[in-house]
Amino acid sequence: MPLARPLGKGLWEVRTSLASKRIARVIFCFHEGELVALTGFIKKTPKTPQDELDRAWSRRKEMER
Fold first, then answer.
1. d(CA 46, CA 17)
2. Bridge partners of 27?
3. Nearest to residue 39, comparing CAs of 63, 59, 61?
4. 3-class DSSP state for residue 65?
5. Which of 14, 26, 50, 63 is the most exposed place for a label (fewest CB within 10 A)?
């Protein structure tokens, strides 16, 4: 798996492994030439939680106003 992957709708996900075998994700986008971190979380399930995706999309939409 690549270190970062597109999630669609302009969102990207960075993957990282932490100590004690935990997995973290940061969802980000690009806005006006800058990388903007929208949300970060510790993964507890194989699939990215929908509430984290919704939070990221909402924050991205807020920036574009």
1. 14
2. 13, 39
3. 59
4. coil
5. 50
User: What are 9-21's pLDDT values in tens digits?
Assistant: 899 999 999 988 8
* 3-state per-residue secondary structure call for 19-53: HHHCEEEEEEEEECCEEEEEEEEEECCCCCCHHHH
| CA distances (Å), origin 52, targets 25, 32, 38 | 10, 23, 9
pLDDT at 1: 64
- Whose tokens are 């991205």? That residue is 60
Give the torsion through C-alpha atoms of 22, 46, 39, 37, to 10 deg. 80
pTM (two decimals): 0.88
